[in-house]
Write a structure and sequence with these properties.
By secondary structure, this protein is α/β, with parallel strands linked by helices. The chain is 26% helix and 17% strand. It is built from 20 helices and 24 strands. Helix 9 links the parallel strand 2 and strand 3. Helix 4 packs antiparallel against helix 5, helix 5 crosses helix 8 and helix 6 runs antiparallel to helix 8. The radius of gyration is 30 Å and the shape is globular. It starts with 7 loop residues before the first helix and ends in a 5-residue tail after the last strand. The structure holds flavin-adenine dinucleotide and iron/sulfur cluster (2 copies). The site of one iron/sulfur cluster has 14 residues, from helix 7 and helix 8.
Length: 662
């Protein structure tokens, strides 16, 4: 006999499937009937997926991925054939929100992917690469935007033809308004034209996506027109029904240390603009870029591509013939030049992991031979007798409780032929001073209407320098506010989840479903009227579905289909203006889209139909099936066992009140 005393842990029941002596088999149905009978029954709950929740543009990502993978099919014409290809249908769903997929698929840092629920399985869905694929396909096939169905006769002035301005013009044109874009530069595009280098945003792609918007008609473009100088804001307020300000943040922040007035010290925006306008064709032997954002990475990568001129001391093996577009007289010509590599240093006050730049831009710089010197702060610019900068003096720093602590006695000099300060941009309010607040940005309300200025809306970097996708999101919200304003409606309150949400009812109606008024005494959630969506509730405007609400066991580990890239490295970067990313093929895009778990929306897996022990769940008649209306429950058979909810991979089924009598 054991002499050991029992501890509470020994006596505590942990988990036992059977009791001692259990030997008789009970049919599952029998057990369930007795164990889990409840008045609860399945309801179909649409929620916003976190990819969309994290996309500042607000794209209906789940929808266009579901179209790409073949779950949602394009509409069928009278001849029974699809009216368009799946690529076009997906592209149309995507561009409902974002008219620039080919651009965003290349340069968006893709916060949607960071938010994607698939990260808890084996890694995010490559949303950005499918976006690029759809954007490229649309350009290749020459897809056009539809013209508006009505003309309202309302006139809107858009100041600034960057991504914010062109996006707002697109959204407003769809609503039938007439737009005039006033752009200070000779061309539309903003930073896409004179900020980001062409190997990241190829100019033919930028031009094609902008042209497609202008080709909608009813959008007048006045380039070389600076509002505040060539035309006043007062005039625009008089001549137009509403005004949108999308002037961006054009001015680079200057370096504020002794010696920074040297002629070979500049800011990042000025350096990149000069490069994009072909005003410089070489960078110099020693380049220092100060900063850790996207602009800093672009400056460093451009400097590595431009290189330095060869002098008599350059050994032939170090010389490379590169083709650079140089300015001769008034035109640009491509000219072969002898070059040697530049030594490019990025000096940043924090650690590399803390740099705000997109990870793949940082990695690209490292691959291309840029040297990173982290945790240093600039102290002064060292000049020669002629006043030219020859070095940047920096000091090593520590970070204590988020405070930067310079380490005394650790100063050292980094040699420099050119110093580029890329530490952010600010807004140039020249001629529009009345609209800025003490923080030098526009004060706005939730609808992006300038505070106390009815009819004046703001978006993009003019609110706060950020991302292209943010500017596109602002444009959608501002356009809705402008539309309400000019049409004499109360400017609508924005929902909690302010995205371009999938509208199931609207989508069903587009495909011929006719929804009558809900009969008195019935709600949309409990009715046997075939015209209503069966037990459906749309919570997308207030709920983002989390990974814990999905049945993750349904999803087998599937590696991401990665985009291939042109291998650009330290040895071949000089003079290399090739794009880094190669778009997915049709088959690759579909394979990647299949990894999407369709969070918060049915993706027609049939699990609920298969596993319901009562046979209470069945498919809707094929002719009535559309996204979100694929299955139905017979509530006279349902016993509320929860199984359909448990096996629903997407979290679309939740148990709600129901049962007998509905
Ligand atoms: C070097 C660099 C790299 C970047 N890289 C990325 C990236 O990889 N991914 C990303 O998402 N974002 C990136 N960004 C940020 C992105 O470019 C901006 O967030 C975006 O361009 C903002 O769009 P916008 O339309 O508000 O402004 P802008 O693109 O700056 O356009 C504003 C337009 O208004 C015009 N304008 C200004 N004042 C007037 C006036 N008074 N009258 C008439 N016209 C006027 C300008 O000429 C310009 O065309 C980068 C920014 C820089 C500078
Ligand atoms: S715009 Fe950016 S955040 Fe939005 S879907 Fe595209 S890659 Fe994702
Ligand atoms: S799995 Fe699909 S729906 Fe879910 S967050 Fe990722 S991309 Fe969006």
């Amino acid at each position: 006999m054991s002499t050991m005393t029992q501890t509470p842990q020994d006596t505590k029941i942990t988990y036992r499937r059977y009791n001692d002596g259990d030997s008789k088999f009970k049919r599952s149905q029998e057990r369930l009937f007795k164990a889990s009978w409840t008045y609860k029954c399945p309801t179909y709950i649409q929620q916003t997926p976190p990819c969309q929740g994290s996309c500042p543009a607000g794209e209906d990502i789940r929808s266009w991925l579901n179209i790409t993978r073949g779950i949602e099919k394009p509409p069928v014409g009278a001849d029974g054939k699809p009216t368009m290809s799946w690529q076009e249908y997906a592209w149309r769903r995507l561009t409902d929100c974002n008219p620039f997929p080919a651009i965003m698929g290349r340069v968006c840092p893709a916060p949607c992917q960071t938010g994607c629920n698939r990260n808890v399985v084996e890694g995010y869905v490559g949303i950005n690469s499918v976006e690029q694929f759809l954007g490229n396909h649309a350009i290749e096939k020459g897809f056009a935007f539809e013209k508006p169905a009505v003309e309202t006769g309302k006139k809107i002035a858009v100041i600034g033809g960057g991504v914010a301005g062109v996006s707002v013009a697109y959204q407003l044109r769809k609503k039938g308004h007439h737009i005039t874009i006033f752009e200070a530069y000779k061309k539309l595009g903003g930073m896409l034209t004179f900020g980001l280098p062409a190997y990241r945003t190829p100019r033919d792609i930028v031009d094609a996506e902008i042209k497609r918007v202008i080709d909608m008609g009813g959008i007048e473009v006045r380039c070389n027109t600076f509002v505040g100088k060539d035309v006043t804001m007062e005039q625009l307020r008089k001549d137009f029904d509403a005004v949108f300000i999308g002037i961006g943040a054009q001015a680079g922040n200057k370096l504020d240390i002794p010696g920074a007035d040297a002629p070979n010290v500049t800011d990042g925006v000025t350096f990149l603009r000069a490069f994009n306008e072909h005003k410089i064709d070489c960078a110099g032997k020693h380049i220092i870029v100060i900063g850790g954002g996207d602009t800093a990475m672009d400056c460093a990568a451009v400097a590595r591509r431009l290189g330095a001129e060869c002098d008599a001391s350059t050994k032939p093996e170090n010389q490379t013939k590169v083709i650079v577009a140089v300015r001769e007289g008034s035109s640009h010509i491509a000219k072969p030049l002898l070059r040697q590599s530049s030594e490019v240093v990025i000096a940043y006050r924090r650690h590399v992991q803390e740099m705000p730049a997109t990870k793949h831009e940082i990695d690209a710089c490292l691959d291309e031979g840029v040297e990173f010197q982290p945790c240093v702060a600039p102290v002064s610019v060292i000049k020669d007798a002629s006043g030219k900068a020859t070095a940047l003096r920096v000091i090593k720093v520590d970070w204590v409780n988020k405070k930067m602590m310079p380490q005394e006695g650790t100063e050292y000099d980094i040699p420099a032929d050119l110093i580029v300060c890329a530490v952010g941009q600010h807004i140039d309010w020249l001629g529009m001073d009345g609209f800025k607040n003490p923080k030098n940005v526009a004060s706005i309300d939730k609808n992006l209407q300038a505070t106390g200025q009815p009819g004046l809306f703001v978006g993009g970097d003019a609110i706060n320098p950020n991302l292209l996708t943010t500017a596109i999101g602002h444009a959608r919200i501002a356009a809705e506010g402008i539309d309400d304003y000019v049409m004499g409606r109360e400017v609508e309150k924005r929902p909690k989840v302010d995205k371009k949400l999938f509208d199931l009812i609207e989508n069903l109606e587009k495909f011929g479903a006719k929804f009558e008024e809900v009969p008195e005494g019935y709600t949309r959630a409990s009715c046997d009227n075939k015209n209503l969506v069966h037990n459906f509730d749309d919570r997308a405007d207030r709920a983002v579905i989390e990974a814990k609400d999905l049945f993750l066991g349904h999803f087998a580990n599937t590696p991401r289909v990665e985009r291939a890239g042109h291998a650009i490295n330290a040895d071949n970067v000089l003079g290399n203006m090739e794009e880094r990313l190669i778009a997915l093929t049709d088959a690759q895009a579909q394979a990647e889209a299949k990894r999407c778990m369709s969070c918060g929306m049915c993706f027609e897996c049939d699990n609920c139909v298969i596993y319901c022990p009562q046979g209470a769940v069945s498919r809707v008649a094929k002719k009535d099936q559309r996204t979100g209306r694929y299955v139905q429950t017979d509530y006279t058979k349902c016993i509320g066992c929860d199984i359909c909810m448990d096996v629903c991979p997407t979290g679309y089924i939740q148990m709600g009140l129901g049962g007998e009598g509905n």
